[in-house]
Write a structure and sequence with these properties.
With 119 residues, this protein is an all-alpha fold. It has 6 helices and no strands. Helix 4 runs antiparallel to helix 5 (79-95) and helix 4 packs parallel to helix 6 (104-118).
Length: 119
């Protein structure tokens, strides 16, 4: 399936930023600019390659799941609890709708979880 319309919107916003435009003035958005910056960094290096973008989405969701498994371990969870968390995270991505792939919420979960871990 083609990418959801949100992906197209944020790619247009990233293209706008890369060409010197002002994000909130030229493209309407009510969210923080982190996802747009991530898309701009991706476009700078790889262009508009949806296959690589989907692969990056899988890596980011997997890394966020790994950090969350670390939270389970640090919170007193034993090995089976961490394993069940890993299983739940592994089943989340392939069984979620394509409309949920390459979205800002899972992408921003990774830096937020890393920041909480550093705290």
């Amino acid at each position: 399936m083609p990418p959801w319309c949100d992906v197209t919107l944020y790619q247009m916003a990233a293209r706008n930023v890369l060409k010197g435009g002002a994000h909130y003035r030229d493209i309407f958005d009510t969210n923080l600019p982190g996802f747009v910056w991530a898309m701009a960094a991706f476009q700078t290096h790889f262009g508009l390659n949806y296959t690589l973008l989907r692969a990056l989405d899988l890596v980011i969701v997997g890394a966020a799941a790994g950090v969350l498994c670390g939270f389970v371990r640090r919170g007193g969870g034993d090995a089976p609890a961490v394993a069940w968390m890993a299983v739940a995270a592994a089943l989340f991505y392939p069984f979620s709708s394509e409309f949920n792939h390459i979205q800002r919420d899972p992408w921003m979960l990774l830096p937020a979880a890393l920041a909480a871990r550093l705290r």
